[in-house]
Recover the amino acids of this structure.
């Protein structure tokens, strides 16, 4: 028997942006446990804005687990928060995502490192040299002494955990970085994104650095904001597609604009201004290879007969990938596919 350190992770009840919470329990298993072997657990919801003090018990239900290479026999256990009767807690947005193994998401997480209340590498007062050399840059004056070390360690922690990390790059602003996570199945990429965020924040503790996810931390200046572009596709989009279906899909995205913006992260009007490769938040648009559109249509999509994936550029860095995935699939589900339209006609 081996004693495993199980770090149960969940999202709290803070709005508009939930925080990650985690606590450890030790359990003995013969070998690395399967998900089914991980027990339900509980926590005091009155401390996380998830329950009143009188009846404060919330239930943690393991939904995916990951090896934690920073701890001997460590496992990260991503959980959904449930009510004592077994129904999903209202803060549990993962439970609102349609089950669809054929849905694939790729999230591009941008963020700033913050130290002493300002972006890592900013002088005590004023600003560093203007944006230009930082994006994908190299050298001490561009990235400083420590950011790359953190980013590289984070990459390895994600790979050790089995997270499908796809890449990293230094971003446009000084102290700003990006990583991408891709997953097949409607909930996988979102689960992995939350665990990757957890690993990044925990890693930064030891450096005295915080991760700033706000979409426009430097306000109305010439410094870039942070997004979390959501690339998405379904089985139908990849294998059937077609121009008519695509146009119907874009119509549905246009109609549901408010519902999307509501879950694409707070303060997004400060970022989606219509300038700097963004679309204005209150007007839906799409365009081929257009980085100033709400949805960018890759060249490959058009060249393949309107088949493949699309990039929604509006979600921001603070957005909850569960709510983003949930809303995108909800809008897609409103558009009849040819098959189901024919089926409906036959019925
Ligand atoms: P860019 O910065 O040019 O927008 P990135 O390489 O940073 O591009 O991000 C592209 C994202 O699109 C990646 O996360 C990738 O996994 C994702 N992606 C690629 N193909 C698909 C697909 N078929 N369905 C969903 N996402 C996809
Ligand atoms: Mn990118
Ligand atoms: Mn980027
Ligand atoms: Mn992108």
């Amino acid at each position: 028997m081996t004693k495993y350190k199980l770090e149960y992770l969940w999202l709290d009840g803070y709005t508009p942006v939930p925080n990650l919470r985690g606590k450890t329990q030790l359990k003995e298993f013969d070998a690395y446990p399967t998900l089914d072997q991980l027990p339900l657990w509980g926590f005091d919801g009155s401390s996380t804005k998830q329950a009143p003090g009188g009846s404060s018990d919330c239930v943690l239900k393991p939904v995916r687990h990951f090896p934690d290479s920073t701890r001997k026999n460590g496992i990260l256990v991503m959980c959904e928060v449930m009510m004592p009767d077994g129904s999903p807690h209202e803060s549990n947005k993962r439970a609102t995502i349609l089950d669809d193994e054929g849905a694939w998401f790729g999230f591009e997480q941008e963020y700033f490192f913050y130290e002493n209340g300002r972006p890592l590498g900013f002088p005590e007062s004023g600003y560093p040299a203007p944006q230009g050399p930082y994006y994908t840059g190299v050298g001490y004056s561009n990235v400083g002494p420590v950011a790359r070390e953190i980013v590289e360690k984070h990459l390895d922690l994600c790979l050790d955990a089995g997270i499908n990390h796809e890449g990293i790059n230094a971003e446009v602003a000084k102290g700003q970085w990006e990583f991408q996570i891709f997953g097949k199945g409607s909930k996988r990429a979102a689960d992995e994104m939350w665990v990757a965020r957890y690993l990044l924040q925990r890693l930064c503790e030891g450096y005295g650095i915080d991760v700033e996810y706000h979409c426009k931390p430097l306000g109305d200046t010439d410094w870039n904001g942070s997004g979390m572009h959501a690339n998405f596709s379904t089985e139908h989009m990849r294998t059937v597609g077609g121009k008519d279906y695509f146009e119907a899909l874009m119509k549905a995205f246009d109609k549901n604009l408010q519902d999307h913006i509501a879950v694409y992260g707070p303060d997004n009007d400060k970022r989606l201004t219509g300038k700097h490769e963004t679309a204005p938040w209150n007007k839906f648009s799409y365009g081929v290879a257009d980085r100033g559109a709400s949805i960018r249509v890759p060249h490959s999509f058009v060249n393949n007969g309107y088949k493949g994936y699309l990039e929604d550029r509006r979600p921001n860095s603070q957005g909850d990938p569960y709510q983003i995935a949930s809303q995108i699939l909800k809008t897609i589900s409103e558009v009849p596919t040819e098959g189901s339209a024919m089926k409906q006609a036959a019925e």
User: Anything to note?
Assistant: The radius of gyration is 21 Å. The first strand starts at residue 2 and ends at 11.
